[in-house]
Amino acid sequence: MRYFSTRGQAEPRDFGGVLLAGLAEDGGLFMPESWPERSAAEWRALRDLPYAELAAQVMHPFVGETISLDVLRGLCERAYAGFNHPARVPMVQLDSGLWVQELFHGPTLAFKDMALQLLGQLFEHVLTERNETVTIVGATSGDTGSAAIEACRDRSRIKIAILHPEGRTSEVQRRQMTTVDASNVFNIAVDGTFDDCQDMVKGLFADTAFRGDMKLTAVNSINWARIAAQIPYYVAAALAMGAPDREVAFAVPTGNFGNVLAAWAARRMGLPVSKLIIGSNRNDILTRFLAANDMTAKGVAPSLSPSMDIQVSSNFERLLFELVDRDPTVTAQLMQDFRKTGHMPVPDAAWKKATALFQGLALSDAETSAAIRQIHDTTGYLADPHSAIGIAAGQAAKLPAPAPVIAMATAHPAKFPDAVEAATGIRPSLPPHLAHLMTGEERLTRAPNDLASVESLIRAFVGRNDQL
Ligand SMILES: *Cc1c(COP(=O)(O)O)cnc(C)c1O
């Protein structure tokens, strides 16, 4: 399988190249040249497979020549072996037509583990084949950093440096990063905000000498491999509900549009999905787009669902590319307009195509809290704020014909205990295997909000590690 940039000006690559590159040189996102479609009989043949086996089979057409099916099967098995539930992605029925698929049984209790645990395996495999090493850098306000660290810890060809804003992540989130005892992990607590950390990471990549010396790479959600690794659980859920002989609908709490894009891809591959329902918090650019073709960026406002506090959903560019019939010139122009003016004039025909498939619902913090309470009162299910938004959107959905709605639960309630307790009076506790979190020794290095200081810290860390 070859991959092209949504903006048409980058060298095409294979899966391995896309995995290591992340973003394309022209600022676009990589997309597969075609969608591997399956017939109804081929979908049926995937029923009842263990999750790792299903994941390998669904992903393999995207991975193509880079990794054989046998090797991919082994990587998937290792990626999901550490999950704390034998089904990996269990389904829970809430109501006659409503199910939840739990994506939070990985090591950091959020759905990012679904993709990043496999990405760690894929990186190690491809780097070994090529006899290369990399330094992964990233900025985090919470969930992504810990999921990336857990995925890369103790991998000999990877060093990982994660910047977080000192004192501005929750204690659970910080400890999930800083209590990891692995010599290839470097936590930097920056004296600044999350935006400062993100600007710093951009600065590290913009310094071409530093970038080359350190062999910098990123694992943020624009990496195609993350999307590919999220397609299998939609297949698993749909098959469990009777697909391909029955239509289903998915409800997805959405921030960067990565998770729901994977659902879109599963449908594009031939899975019978009647509707994609997206839930958002007060940062509602996507639901405004669906309601009135109003794609206008506003400032990010903090909410009860911080992992969805996003103003510009980077993976939307992939859907846009498809909506304009894969025209890279139109896509590049629209993205450029958006960057310049904060408003994207999506052509009417493209918007209509989007609204035929997608529905959206935005919830304020008060509505999110009410949703957590109502879900618990009526079904007994304890949902975190992100998952509650997805479930509420699923409950409000208008379907063209009766179909089971499957809402994606993206975080364990114990990750957001204050919001859950405020809504229900119940304080969810961490699963036993994470109890050590609150007592383990923390490892972090403080840094001023200054690019040169952070660069020299990372240089020293990478050098020190080489001598171990
Ligand atoms: C990242 C995240 C989301 C948003 O997912 P996207 O792929 O960015 O749309 C939702 N919920 C939780 C808990 C997350 O960590």
Keywords:
globular, pyridoxal phosphate binding, pyridoxal phosphate, binds pyridoxal-5'-phosphate, amino-acid biosynthesis, 468 residues, single chain, 6-stranded mixed sheet, alpha/beta, Rossmann fold
Please write out the topology.
Blueprint: E1 3-5, H1 15-21, E2 30-32, H2 40-44, H3 51-63, H4 69-81, E3 91-95, E4 98-102, H5 112-130, E5 134-139, H6 143-152, E6 158-165, H7 171-178, E7 185-190, H8 194-206, H9 208-214, E8 216-217, H10 224-240, E9 248-253, H11 258-268, E10 273-280, H12 285-292, E11 295-296, H13 316-323, H14 328-341, E12 343-344, H15 348-357, E13 358-362, H16 365-379, H17 385-396, E14 405-409, H18 417-424, E15 445-447, H19 451-466
Parallel strand pairs: 4-14, 5-6, 5-8, 6-7, 7-15, 9-10, 9-14, 10-13
Antiparallel strand pairs: 1-2, 3-4, 11-12
Helix pairs in contact: 3-4, 3-10, 4-5, 5-6, 5-10, 6-7, 10-11, 16-17, 16-18
What is the name of the CATH topology of one domain?
A: Rossmann fold
The CATH architecture assignment of one domain turns out to be: 3-Layer(aba) Sandwich
**Low-confidence sequence ranges:** none
Total number of helical segments? 19
Mean pLDDT across every amino acid position: 94
Structural class, by secondary structure, is: alpha/beta
- The coarse silhouette is globular
Major sheet attributes: 6 strands, mixed
